[in-house]
Amino acid sequence: MRMPLWYGGDYNPEQWPEEVWAEDVALMRRAGVTLVTVGVFSWSRLEPAEGRYTFGWLDRVLDLLAGGGIGVDLAVPTASPPPWFSLEHPDALTVTRDGVRLTHGSRDTYCVSAPAYREASLRITRALAERYRDHRAPVMWHVHNEYGTPCHCDHAAAAFRAWLRRRYGGLDALNDAWTTAFWGQRYSDWAQITPPRATQYLPNPAQALDFRRFVSDEMLAHFAEQRDLLRELTPGVPVTTNYVLAGWACVDHWKWSREVDLVSVDDYPSGRGMAAAEQTAFAADLARSWAGGRPWLLMEQATGYVLGPRASPKEPGEIARHSLQHVARGSQGAMFFQWRASRGGAEQWHPGMVPHAGPDSRVFREVCALGEALGRIPAPVDGPLIGPPVVEAEVAILWDEEAWWAVQGPGLPSAEIDYLAAAQQAHRVLWRQGVAVCFAHPSHDLPPYRAVLVPSLYLISDEAARNLAAYVEGGGTLVVSFFSGIADEHTRIRPGGYPGALREVLGIRVEEFRPLAEPVELPELGPSTVWSEVVHLDGAEAVARYPGGGPAVTRHRVGAGTAWYVSTRLDDSGYARVLAQAGPAGSGTPGVEVVRQRDRVFAINHTEDEQPVPVDGTDLITGRPVDGSLGPGGYVVVPVQTRPAVDPRRFRDLPNHR
Questions:
Q1: What is the DSSP code (8-state) at residue 101?
Q2: Could you give the 3-state DSSP secondary structure of residue 173?
Q3: Distance from CA of residue 120 to its chain's centroid?
Q4: CA distance linking residue 162 with residue 160, whole number of Å
Q5: For residue 135, what are the contacts with CB-CB under 8 A and spacing of at least 6?
Q6: Which of 497, 441, 498 lies closest to 471 in space, CA to CA?
Q7: Cβ atoms of residues 239 and 227 within 8 Å
Q8: Is there a contact between 485 and 494 (Cβ–Cβ < 8 Å)?
Q9: CA 430 to each of CA 259, 590, 637: distance values in angstroms, whole numbers, following the listed order
């Protein structure tokens, strides 16, 4: 049975007088809201002193929502410990790498390794689960909020050492992995090891990378403790936590996505206009790939404004278009932060579904229109938490958080190397051409996609390198960008020339790097920036050359496939020309998005002109026929005849495994 889409947002009734609550529910019904997240930051209201609970207000809120037919994503509020906890347990407050212990006054004021914090987290989790295990409102549990905050205190240090013992077994293995012979850092006792705190000069990059891995695993353990308790007390109710895509967030999303019942993400594009649409598609494809063919949910986005140093109003229709980009890629719905814009507090200027102007506003009218539209689109799966992949991907882009973390490490030859920007460019160029894309970890099994793109994958294991070579030998097309394959999983440089583990499959040897201070014009491909290399051919052929004659882009035939190497940063048009030669280019209309699910097609026009679309049928949203074109900013969802199941080795989302 097809389920309705979830639609709504974070609801914080504790910020408002109780007489507003009934109005909220009435407005939610008017807007078509089906789900709200309640209690994310309400720990201090729920437990004003240790072991003393005040659930009466939440009882009334949940009763009101249930009476209005609105489901609840009930939060465990461990992202924001109450002031009394911080005063009683100052050792559980966050310590920065500089050794500064932060004070209460914001959210995320905790150390995830502090025993008192872990105990308090389980206590509030148990109290909520026992209180509401039989209430009809909760349909899902929401643990914490945007995990990612590291701590460098003594609790974290002890937990880090325990994690390292499990990872390496003994100090000899750790010293080898961390290359501690450099600068005389060899450890002779586990007690000598700390988190990578502030030091005189550059920290050890292997230590810094392992600490990020540890933080991800330690936070995952915190989540799993609460999840397991919730599963015990409320069996059958799914448990999730909302991901945030940010360089500061120490979260390995491939690993985490195996542990949640439902992948959920927050998406706040920073661009405007077409750039925002490109960033939204990138985030949605990442979430879909992390979910690995299972359902997922857009948990947070903004309504009226693009957030940033200068708030920019979203253009009319963008709220719906961005939401539908996620739904098209399999999201179980579209959620926002937050329902009603706050009057005070640190995020009082964060937009809401009900803005400061109230319901008589453009934003709320668009919110209502989107709710009506989503109400006419069934969810993309056959049940609340089951279902097959819904988008047939043609090209895979490799995504590895550990490689991203390593590129953020100390002492690299250029501060302008940007893993995220490289991945976004690869996705953006294909999105403009209408090519369906998924993301994969380098160690995933790779079916015969049209191509696999490798954006500046500095860190790579021997296993992953063999995996990519096998993909090419089997007939695949591999497109590798500069600064890839250079270091192993411990950030140790692979000797013999770059790009290290990928030299053989690429048929080249890079002798040295030459970062660029000024752009260089490549005759065949236009401007190149940031980076260049001295490339020697070792079986490959040059497809494009630097002005001095050295190879800039190469092609190597291996077995039944081909491996390409791009040794510099090209602009989007230059990179698109490389992909056109390599094979994965498409023929879509820039700014017109067409996403095909198994039994329907989403078409979204992000441009200001009428555009042709390869879609005919009846729009589910309006009930009107679609004649192969879309007006400016328009969107349609058209049912199509279900096609036979595709060969599982082709054009599918990758399974979520390592």
A1: B
A2: helix
A3: 28
A4: 5
A5: 62, 66
A6: 441
A7: yes
A8: yes
A9: 31, 10, 22
Cβ 598 vs Cβ 390: under 8 Å: yes
Active-site option among 47, 218, 278, 300: 300
Which tokens sit at 531?
A: 């980076």
pTM, entire model: 0.95
Question: Are the beta carbons of 639 and 618 closer than 8 angstroms?
Answer: yes
Q: Is residue 146 among the annotated active site residues?
A: yes
The per-residue DSSP string of 363-407 comes to: HHHHHHHHHHHHTTSB-SSSSSS-----S--SEEEE--HHHHHHH
Region of residue 45 (phi > 0: left; psi between -120 and 50: alpha; otherwise: beta)? alpha
570 exposure class (CB count in 10 Å sphere: 0-12, 13-18, 19+): buried
pLDDT by residue (tens digit) across 430-448?
A: 999 999 999 999 999 887 7
Closest by CA position to 350, among listed 359, 339, 358, 364 = 339
The answer to whether the CB of 613 falls within 8 A of the CB of 596 is: no
Of the candidates 36, 281, 244, 266, the one whose C-alpha atom is nearest the C-alpha of residue 149 is 244
Report which residue type is found at 655.
P
Amino acid identity of 220?
L
Q: Secondary structure of the chain: what % helix, strand, coil (to 5)? A: 35, 20, 45
DSSP E strands: which ranges in 546-646?
Answer: 551-558, 561-566, 569-570, 592-596, 600-605, 611-618, 625-630, 635-639
Identity of the amino acid at 554: T
CB contact at 8 A, 340 and 294 = no
Distance CA 582, CA 449 (A): 13
Separation of alpha carbons 351 and 355, rounded Å: 6
Among candidate residues 146, 278, 366, 489, the one labeled active-site is 146
pLDDT in the model for residue 587: 79
Phi, psi of 154 (to 5 degrees): -70, -35
The rounded distance, in Å, linking the Cα atoms of 72 and 256 is 23
pLDDT in tens, 532-580: 999 999 999 999 999 999 999 999 999 999 999 999 999 999 999 999 9
Per-residue pLDDT band at 382 (split at 50, 70, 90): low
Q: Is 392 a catalytic residue?
A: no
Does residue 464 contact residue 318 with C-beta atoms inside 8 Å? no
Q: Which amino acid is at 117?
A: Y
Could you tell me the CA-to-CA distances from 117 to 69, 79, 234, 246 in Å, in that order? 35, 11, 23, 24
Tell me: the pLDDT tens digits for 35-68?
999 999 999 999 999 999 999 999 999 999 999 9
Which residues does 171 contact at the CB level (< 8 Å), separation at least 6? 187, 188, 189, 190
CA dist 232 and 240 (Å) reads: 15
